[in-house]
Amino acid sequence: MTIAGNSMVIAVVSLDPHLHTPMYFFLFNLAVIELLYTNVVIPNTLRNLLNEDKNISFVGCFIQMFAFITLGGSECVLLGIMAYDRYVAICKPLLYTIMMNMSLCIYLVVMCWVIGCVNSLVNTVLTATLPYCHDRLIRHYFCEIPPLLKIACKNTHTNELVVFLVGGFVMVGPFLLTLISYSFVISAVIKIPSATGKRKAFSTCTSHLMVVTIFYGTIILTYLRPPSQSFYNHDHIVSLAYAIVTPLINPFIYSFRNKDVQSALRKIIQPRIFL
């Protein structure tokens, strides 16, 4: 369902020229991230659930971690940029096409990937160079930083500090940008005289806010807090929200409730039905 939903978003945005705008360009890239996210985590998780052999190689574990953190960091930054895009569209509509030109949008998306890769590379290298003792049981569904730090036979204070500082920059920076953007958006929407205008303005933001709440909330709970034994108990369940649930529901929240996407989907499907 996750692959089908995100693939459909990618196809619809690609095929309909009316959707070749900054908002849908960012949505296209979000769907690509979610599609890759799913393939990094779910196949091996399903294999572990179905098979008695639940091993993963050392190299395979850290490749999975690198890809997972890269995609997570890139999505964090992209969600912040999408909030800024909504701010410009609602608060500065006459300047929107100038401020959010396609060259800038491409630059911003490339910046998302660069920040995600750098953050992931730093954390993956530091975690991979730790010595690991006889306990090689990762109490988690996939390779992630917190459960791996738990089984290292060395003081991991430096690693935890790097996760908090570098990861905090990648997570909290876009989150603050989102909060600031929406504070201006809400202020601008309140000043719109008609109720219809207010509903239309808010309708372009509600989907993004729902995804931001789920995604940032679960990631901050996992990474930006003092380490504790509680990770063994329930944090691996929390991480499933941003690793599996968010990629699944994003296409429905963002796209299938969107009239432009629904219209584009009908244009693509209907001619093929009657052929």
Structural account:
- The protein is built from ten helices and no strands.
- α2 (22-50) runs antiparallel to α3 (58-91) and α7 packs antiparallel against α8 (195-223).
- 77% of the residues lie in helices and 0% in strands.
- With 275 residues, the protein is mainly alpha-helical.
How is the topology of this model organized?
Elements: H1 2-15, H2 22-50, H3 58-91, H4 96-99, H5 102-128, H6 145-150, H7 157-190, H8 195-223, H9 235-255, H10 259-273
Helix pairs in contact: 1-2, 1-9, 1-10, 2-3, 2-9, 3-5, 3-7, 3-8, 5-7, 7-8, 8-9
Short description:
The protein has ten helices and no strands. It is mainly α.
Based on secondary structure, the structural category is mainly alpha
Number of helical segments with 4 or more residues: 10
Cα distance spanning the termini: 26 Å
Report the biggest beta sheet as strand number plus sense, adding barrel if it closes. Answer: none
Instruction: Supply Rg.
Output: 20 Å
Shape designation: globular
Global mean pLDDT: 81
The count of strands amounts to 0
Q: Could you spell the SSE succession in H and E letters?
A: HHHHHHHHHH
* Percent in strands: under 5%
In helices, the fraction of residues equals over 70%
| Poorly predicted sequence stretches spanning 5 or more consecutive residues | 228-232
